[in-house]
Specification:
It comes from Vibrio diazotrophicus. This is Ca-activated chloride channel family protein. InterPro entries: UPF0353/GerABKA_families (IPR050768), VWF_A (IPR002035), vWFA_dom_sf (IPR036465). It holds the Pfam family VWA_2. The chain is an alpha/beta fold. The protein is about 40% helix and about 20% strand. The strands form 4 sheets. The chain has a 6-stranded mixed β-sheet, sandwiched between helices. A 3-stranded antiparallel β-sheet has the order 1-2-13. A two-stranded antiparallel ribbon has the order 3-12. Helix 3 runs antiparallel to helix 10, helix 4 packs parallel to helix 9 and helix 6 packs parallel to helix 7. The model has no long low-confidence stretch (mean pLDDT about 85).
Length: about 325
């Protein structure tokens, strides 16, 4: 509900000042000399003239007093600086921007993860764990990058976790190609952070992959150096056990160096529990800093009072001018 606030309410103590001046300061009385003419009426009769009204004592009219009272009230109220307070508004102050980078290469279809006795693909397992991770991070903004032969932004940073999870669930293996262009995906994530242009925002990138880089324009190590210079932490999560599917072993040296360069951590998740543990540890290492602030917008009114004062005096002056013009006798 809207209300009125006065920034300097003590100015209202000046309201009785005119009355104090009226009561305490002596009134000014002018003294005029006059000539007494004997036989005044006889002289007028001889000159065939009639007497005219002499100067009288001027008395203030009610409208003059009302004008002075309203003027003083407007001036004092304007000095008190009134403002209309709007409805209470809530501003959300987000703690971190978290960019999640997910590998969609063909190997993410391997069913070497299990939960509740059911086999899951690596991508399905990642979706389950990411849902729980994101649901628990109230106040953070999340972005999503998917990559394979190339990388693309599935969603920029958003605080709407429902939309973010919906877009994650729409992703599928090989929709971005069969390859693993890891370095390009990291470079795209850095570019999205740059577009945000908030130097105070804490920046975190979580990269989930199950393969080595297969020909990015930007090497993962080079991308990590750029990220480190821009204050972006990169947590690397290597999924799966390559020995069980005949894949080329993951280059864990690259995975670990990327995280070390950006002052983050790297993880190996060979099963569902290991993946959960990795995200739980990230949750501990990057505590939530979300907060809300409430405020009420203000609309200042003092200048409207000054405008009203000026308009009132212009109207009074105009009315008096018209009255005097009409009272002037036509010659």
């Amino acid at each position: 509900m809207s209300s009125i606030e006065f920034a300097h309410p003590w100015y209202f103590l000046l309201l009785p000042l005119p009355l104090l001046v009226y009561w305490l300061v002596p009134a000014y009385h002018s003294r005029e000399s006059a000539i007494k003419v004997p036989f005044f009426s006889q002289i007028l009769e001889a000159l065939n003239e009639s007497p005219r009204e002499a100067a009288g004592l001027l008395t203030s009219q009610w409208w003059q007093k009302a004008t002075l009272f309203i003027s003083w009230l407007l001036i004092v109220t304007a000095l008190a600086h009134p403002s209309i307070l709007g409805e209470v508004q809530t501003r959300e102050e987000f703690g971190r921007d978290v960019m999640v980078v997910v590998d969609l290469s063909g190997s993410m279809a391997e069913q070497d993860f299990t939960t509740d006795g059911k086999n899951l693909t690596r991508l399905q397992a990642a979706k389950q764990v990411l849902k729980e991770f994101v649901d628990n991070r109230e106040g953070d903004r999340f972005g999503l990058i998917l990559f394979g032969d190339s990388a693309f932004v599935q969603t920029p940073f958003t605080a709407d976790r429902t939309v973010w999870l919906s877009l994650l669930n729409e992703s599928d293996v090989a929709m971005a190609g069969q390859s693993t262009n890891l370095g390009d995906a990291m470079g795209l994530g850095i570019k999205v952070f740059e577009q945000n242009r908030d130097p105070e925002q804490q920046k975190v990138m979580i990269v989930l992959t199950d393969g080595n880089d297969t020909g990015s324009f930007v090497e993962p190590i080079d991308a990590a150096k750029i990220a480190a210079a821009k204050g972006i932490k990169i947590y690397m999560i290597a999924m799966g056990d390559p020995e069980t599917v005949g894949e080329q072993p993951l280059d864990m040296d690259v995975i670990e160096r990327v995280s070390a360069l950006t002052k983050a951590r790297s993880f190996t998740a060979i099963d569902q529990q290991a993946l959960i543990d990795a995200y739980n540890l990230i949750d501990e290492l990057e505590p939530q800093t979300y907060s809300t602030a409430t405020y009420r917008p203000k609309i200042s009114l003092h200048h409207y009072l000054i405008i009203a004062l000026v308009v009132m005096h212009l109207l009074v002056f105009g009315a008096l001018t018209i009255k005097r013009i009409r009272e002037v006798p036509n010659e």
